[in-house]
Every structure is written in C-alpha cells, then in structure tokens.
Specification:
Number of strands: 0
Oligomer: single chain
Strand content: under 5%
Length: 120
Amino acid sequence: MSPELGTVLQISAFGTLFLFAALAGLIGLMYLLTGSWLFHRAAAPAHDPDPAQEAELVDTRAEEQEELDRQHRAVALAVAVACAHSERPAVFVAEAPSDWRRMHRARRLGQQRARAKASM
C-alpha cells in the first residue's frame, strides 16, 4: 500500500468517526430535549397549593378564556365587515366560456355520441 493511500484511508477513517459521533450526539440531544421525564419534573408542584390560590387560578383562566372568545368574535366581525365593504362579490361568478372552449366541448361531446351510435 502506498503512503498516499494510507493517508487517504486515515483521513476517511477519522472523518467517518467524527461523522458518526456527531450523529450520535445529535440523536442524544434530541432524546434529551424531547424526553418526558424532563417535563414531568418541571410540571410537578413542589407543595400543595392553597384553595384560595387555586380558586384565583381558575378565575384567571376563566377570564383569559373569556378574553380569547371576545377576540375571536372581534376578528370574525372584522372579517365580515371587510367582506361586506369589499368591491368583489362574495360569490365567484364564472365567466362565459370562450368560443374556443365551446368548439372543443362540442367536438368532445360529438365524439361521445358518435361512439355510442357506432356501438349500437
């Protein structure tokens, strides 16, 4: 084996080793970031919450939901007003077919009738 070939094989071996190490590291990081054990610890409360705090939290969530519903209604109203004020009609009006299209449609329909008569 020539020294040049030995050098090329060493370089390719190191490159392959680094490539697979990087892939293994990437897969490991993905497992760490998406692991359910990571999120269960953060979501678990450290102590039992007070009933007053829990009621306040429920009230806050209800208020947030009401605000979100109000925002959705406001957006729907804005879209309805914009559609009403736009100059384009809400219903798409199809254009009349051109002469070229009518000619080809008539040819196509004429061929189907000719085939039906021939098979009788």
